[in-house]
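thought: fold this chain, then report.
action: predict
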Amino acid sequence: MRGQENEAETGLARVKFEPDDIEVFVPKGTTIAKAAFAAGCGVEMPCGGMGTCGKCRVHAEGELSEPDSSEKRLLSAEALAEGIRLACRAKIEGDAVVEVPAASRSIVQKILSDGVTRDVHVAPAVQKIYVELPKPTLIDERGEFERLAAGLMMYDIEAQIGVPMARELPKILRAADYRVTAVVSEDWVIAVEPGNTARHNYGVAFDIGSTTIAGYLIDVNTGHELAVTSAMNPQMAYGDDLVSRINFAMTEPRGLGMLRDSLLDALNRVIRQLVENQGVDQSSVYEVTIVGNTCMTHIFLGLDITTLGTSPYVPTICGQMTLRGEEAGLEVNPGARVHVLPNVAGFVGSDLVGVVLSVLREDDKRTRLAVDVGTNGEMALQHDGRLYACSAAAGPAFEGARIAYGMRGSVGAIDSVCITDHVEFTTVDDKPALGICGSGVIDAVAGMLDAGVLDESGRMLIPSEAGNLPSDIANRLVDGRDGPEFVIAWAGETARRENITLSQRDVRQLQLAKGSIRAAIETLFKVAGTNSSELEDILLAGAFGNYIRKESAVRIGLIPSIDMDKIVPVGNAAGAGAKLALISVRERERARRLASRIEHIELASHSDYENEFMDKMLFPSSADAAVTGR
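observation:
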């Protein structure tokens, strides 16, 4: 009873989340979404909590705010009467019980973790050197650091030391009887450890994406990858795309700090998982390399991102940044060196530099195209010894957002679709269908084009026009709320117990996304003075590039029509670039050179880009899309 009085006095409300059976206390007036994140029950909010997508549906009972205009627009009267609410809009006014259904949860998605491999000379910046030093005497009155420096000089190291390390040095040397291992990075002593620990030398490479984070634990003595793990980027709670997050940083008083704090939490969680997996001490991680789009690396560094949201979209810095582990806020050795690889421009980041580092060569005269398909699509074209790059704001449709039944590639997502006289599909982990992810959407649209359900403009047949289609296909054309819809999975085949469909609006969203990517590719061709017929290959980078069927990507016009054998998925090439920069100083220097060599093409400055975009929103005819191997 006393606890209830305290809750009333302090303005707190008790919220219980099902089926997790978790209770939290939050201030009255808190949205269900914020309470859910506090409870560790993440809710999908592709629109960043703006109340425009309707995907954060929960079942809630108790003392709640009245439905606002967004809820009344996106939810039917029947749904509201049954207690269905939008987590981003409904506020908790008193004790409540909330059920977060599977379709609305932020689920850890299936992420491809292996990248490309190639030969590289292992030459890490961090060395661990065991030395046995003479003890000080009345005759040998050298300072403790000078004593250590003399021992390291035998290894051609002109040692330097910072104040934090110098403060700890005397007690470490004396406790270890002057038998120690010095951890040295480019002549700087960053740690000193008792005994001989030279074998234990680790680093972590990160690829920070807008949606996912991939982390790799590397033995930098050998260059071997020991462990890999990945996590959702928790900034998704503040918006699916970069523009939403930049807007959040601009409008919220602590917006940038909140974005950075959530990112650091995720990075440190990944580090803990990596080291625990291998029984490694976190203090034995002495070097970290990071790649990501310009916005993500700026947030990590705590740099102003508001200039990225207004023309001419200039970053605070493009060059490589290096800071100490303690300064970075990472749970590694406090003196560890954290290297954020260089960006190219406001929306062409070090992730693309990582892609180029791992799959392209400076001396290559061939014509090659590397495409990282995603919310912020980035691409690099190599032609006649020059490198061109640009970014295209494709939006989150490829991640399943802005698609009515869209979701990321997590358990239960329809990830492949085959349409002939009937429809077949597969789901991630073979679980009952919860929704459809980007690769499934691309497959479905490609099949709908071939089946005659869609024409080249993207218009979907209405049910009364389906008479000439095979019966199973015709029956799947139904009247939806806003026009025709095509049923991918019937209610009985889904975990939702309702049909999973693609609507006319969904198709338009895909057209916008693929038109943006393809128009950017064509603009690069024009600037470089080449075309797709000269392409040696197309390298599809990133996890998404590994999951989409090449034939479907060509059929919808996402990428140029070339021989299928020349379209090569290259895994997480950005992460592979981060690993290369971790195990080799030469590769990190090469990344710096590449970033300065890449010629950034600002699409907004090319007047014909808009015309190209309008043209590439259309789907190619089946004849145009016909390629060897299809």
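thought: worth noting. Residues 106 and 364 are 42 Å apart (CA to CA).
final: tokens above.
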